[in-house]
Design a protein that fits this description.
By secondary structure, the chain is an alpha/beta fold. It folds into two domains: 11-59 and 118-199 and 300-379, FAD/NAD(P)-binding domain, CATH 3.50.50; 94-117 and 202-299 and 457-470, D-Amino Acid Oxidase, Chain A, domain 2. It is built from 14 helices and 20 strands. It has helices spanning 19-28, 63-72, 76-82, 119-131, 183-189, 268-273, 279-284, 333-348, 358-381, 394-410, 414-424, 436-444, 458-464, 473-477; strands at residues 11-15, 33-37, 60-61, 86-89, 94-97, 113-116, 136-139, 142-149, 154-161, 164-169, 172-175, 197-200, 205-212, 224-227, 237-244, 248-255, 294-296, 301-304, 316-318, 324-325. The strands form five sheets. The protein has a six-stranded mixed β-sheet. A five-stranded parallel β-sheet has the order 7-2-1-11-19. It is globular and about 70 Å long.
């Protein structure tokens, strides 16, 4: 008689329909039937999602994230672009002042393209792609109460829906609930010791306001404008102008302890004009605001070292900001979330999802992109007063000085800029900064002179402020052609 038995397909539950949760679901559908549990009602189309207050601030997806997005969900970046997003060349489409107060020349010889759009648009496209998969089920308005199981294995998830509690059995439970994750308490409830945690908090406050694209900039591909804070000068203050879909500018300002922006709409432009370079204030001083100012203060770098725990239960995994959250100024959260999901998928292609020890191996694999972004973030923020109880070591100070020199070289040399962006975009490890492509330009040049101000061209100034033109020839010459 023919064998009519079939192997049961594994099941996975992902807690949270955040970007990290959606990426995890996308990775897992290759191996399991996936249920996404979301406590809120998800919006239809492009609209704000409750529980994601940071969505109103400026977001960038570095080129390492762009690659990860398309690897997980082929064509999803094109989908975002078709809806009004943009692949911006870094630095050709960007005017950026580094933390050490050096303006980058707008070299166009690198391959790096960052995805630029509102977070609402990105989330809507991701939801459509992931939640529409035939092996994915969504449970909305459902609260995760905690995992079922013991210290050796998690077997499912306790839920509350419409006031009633029930348990959903699963071979793998994934916590992607972000900074508010309750995984530490859940693991303690299973009888496991706590994970080592570290926090580096520069005390950053973010203030964001949406503007109508000023002057005649609508539809022109106006460059991103970024004034980064200097950790050597406290308080650190900075800001970014992000032209997004719908002919709008997302303007986000930031300041550390003692120099925070306020929620007062009348003080917003003045704060921007008071930055170390007033370019953002000048650009928005006559722009029409499209709403009030939104503030966020939950910006600390916080990491839980789950991958180092001596014991870890089978059937449980933590991803995204629930493992590590970063100061948003570095723009690495979305990239790390996608790369973590890719690490999960890569390991499961050679290891059974239900095999003993798989969850522990998955947790360790997902920690690798976390570590890369963490070192970049805390390597800057640790130098702000009060950011950490442990002051930077001699080695960390030496590395910070080296990075400052690497930035200064990359600002004026296209080969060095390529190496710097490889690291900043999370495409390559930090060791790339010690490769010949960086060391040779750093030691021997040639390098162009430092720019005296932001490299906006006369034409760009005129579209934003029709009566104002750039006053330095360097502003035009700084838009470099491929070499």
């Amino acid at each position: 008689m023919p064998d009519t038995t079939t192997a049961r397909r594994p099941t996975a539950v992902v807690i949270g329909a955040s970007a990290a949760g959606l990426f995890a679901a996308a990775a897992l559908t290759e191996f399991a039937d996936v249920t996404v549990v979301e406590r809120d009602t998800l919006p239809g189309g492009v609209a704000p999602r409750r529980g994601v207050p940071q969505a109103r601030h400026a977001h960038l997806v570095w080129s390492g994230g762009v690659r990860a997005f398309d690897d997980l969900l082929p064509g999803v970046v094109d989908d975002v672009v078709s809806e009004g997003g943009r692949l911006a060349h870094i630095m050709g489409d960007m005017v950026s002042r580094a933390p050490n107060e050096i303006w980058f020349r707008r070299f166009t010889s690198t391959h790096h393209r960052n995805l630029v759009c509102s977070r609402d648009l990105l989330d809507a496209v991701l939801r459509d792609r992931v939640l529409g998969h035939e092996r994915t089920t969504l449970l909305q308005d459902t609260t995760a109460l905690g995992p079922e199981g013991d210290a050796h294995r998690v077997t499912g998830l306790r839920l509350r829906t419409a006031g009633e509690e029930h348990t959903l059995a699963a071979d793998l439970v994934v916590d992607a609930t972000g900074r508010g994750s309750r995984a530490p308490g859940w693991l303690a409830g299973l009888g496991l010791p706590g994970a080592t945690e570290r926090e580096v908090d520069a005390g950053v406050t973010y203030a964001t306001r949406l503007y109508e694209a000023p002057g005649t900039t609508a539809g022109t591909g106006f460059p991103l404008v970024n004034v980064q804070a200097n950790p050597a000068t406290s308080p650190g203050q900075g800001g970014i102008v992000l032209p997004v879909e719908g002919d709008r500018w997302i303007v986000t300002l930031s300041g550390t302890r003692g120099g925070e922006p306020s929620g007062d709409p009348h003080a917003f432009v003045e704060f921007a004009r008071g930055l170390a370079d007033p370019v953002i204030g000048r650009l928005i001083q006559h722009a029409r605001p499209l709403g009030d100012v939104t503030l966020s203060r939950s910006t600390a770098n916080r990491r839980r070292y789950y991958e180092k725990m001596r014991r870890w239960p089978d059937g449980f995994l933590v991803l995204g900001d629930a493992v590590a959250g970063y100061n948003p100024v570095y723009g690495h959260g979305l990239t790390v979330a996608a790369q973590g999901a890719l690490a999960v998928r890569g390991l499961l292609r050679s290891t059974g999802l239900t095999a003993p020890g798989t969850a522990r191996r998955l947790q360790r694999a997902a920690a690798r992109p976390v570590a890369a972004a963490w070192e970049l973030a805390v390597g800057q923020d640790a130098f702000y007063p009060g950011a950490t109880d442990t002051p930077p070591t001699v080695l960390e100070r030496c590395l910070a000085r080296y990075v400052d020199r690497a930035v200064a070289t990359g600002a004026r040399d296209p080969r060095a800029l390529g190496a710097l962006l490889d690291v900043m975009s999370l495409e390559r490890p930090a060791t790339r900064l010690f490769a010949p492509g960086m060391l040779l330009p750093m030691l021997f040049g040639p390098k162009k002179a430092r720019l005296p101000g932001p490299p906006l061209t006369d034409a760009e100034w005129e579209t934003a402020l029709p009566t104002t033109a750039a006053t330095t020839v360097e502003a035009v010459e700084a838009v470099e052609r491929p070499v």
